[in-house]
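Researcher: I'm preparing a figure for a lab meeting and need a structural model of a single chain. I don't have an experimental structure, so a prediction will have to do for now. The sequence is pasted below. Please return the structure as tokens so I can convert it later.
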Amino acid sequence: MQMKSTLSFLLGTAAISGVLLLNAMQSQAQVIGCENGTVIWSNDFGTGTTPTSSPDVVNLIYQATGNLTNEGVYRITNNTQQKPEWLNSPDHTGNTNGQMLVANGQDEIFYQKTISSASGFVNGTYSFSLWAMNIDSMGVCSPNPLLTQIIISIEYLDESNQWQPLNGSPYTAAKLAQTTTPVWVNVGSEFTLTSSGTFKPLTLRITISDGVTGGCGNDFAADDFNLTLCPEGGPTPVTFEGITAKQQGSGVSVNWSTSQEINNDHFEVERSANGNTGWQTIGTVAGAGSSQLAHSYNVFDANPLSGINYYRVKQVDKDGNSSYSKTVSIRLDGVGTKVSVLANPFRGSLTIQFSGASQQVNARLMDLTGRQVARESWNISNGASTKQFSNVSGLQNGIYILSIQSSTGELLFNGKVLKQ
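Model: Understood. Here is the structure written out token by token.
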């Protein structure tokens, strides 16, 4: 199979041009992206007549042959009709025997790609897009079919080796509607990298999720992933030198500094429970206007959330334009949910103990390749409680990764367990 996934890190020296072969009858007219940008990574899944897997597809289970009847299975193939009731279409790229990702979807991350650059990724605007199709024929699962909803997240690895979201991340697209004939839809958005000081991130991570549960419907194809660095939009209005979040008593002190401010009106400190969504403004501070001197600022959060809190600073110009600092996080001492595995190694059952406030949690068990082998959702009660995976006795002996998140996305536990 000819592999055509391309990678270029010549961010400031040369643009990579390409020709996207579109069928006007099959594709949505609007193409998402920025003009005269530099393509730094793309993937069209290559060509071939033999179905294959992809190392970047996660959680979904590869199925080489037969109809893709079960929830959460996929293959890289050259035709969308992998079940009789699915639409019959070639890939979006238009190459002979061009391949694409075809999946019977469920609510989870299904694709993740890490991209590295020895020279580092510059601050600026990045465009990411892909082409997707609802492959269910019109009327399948009527009257209430499940419709795939693509969610895109882009992050960078900061100085402390922590993943930080680009501004605009995550982006949630509209649900993919059923159609009578195959229709490719361009999905994507622009994201802004604003790492602080002279630090240049060396690594970006693209994560693509399906925001709809498994069931009747939620079947899709995806192709032609593309990440582009957009042309520079002018001087950075504020140069952030650093941002920290430190616990003070029962609250959190958020501190940041700048080395340059141009036409700056004010700063807004925002807080989130998961670092991606639900950002709330907890304080506002006037800026210095235009200054080449160093300035330091502070906002105190007297009522932080239970567990992990994420903070970022929004800079607002006098003309209303805005940009963001990097995101920092802090877990408050003595607050939050504690999780422990009662028997590790485990044999017939895997038992987890929780201690904390009542909430819903989602637990996943994965093998070392990242393939999900078991999944549970539990409502845990206030105080101490235990829960068990009900379907692990038949697993092969070996090491697995246990990941547990709250319903808000807070990571409560991530570690290795051993099946004997």
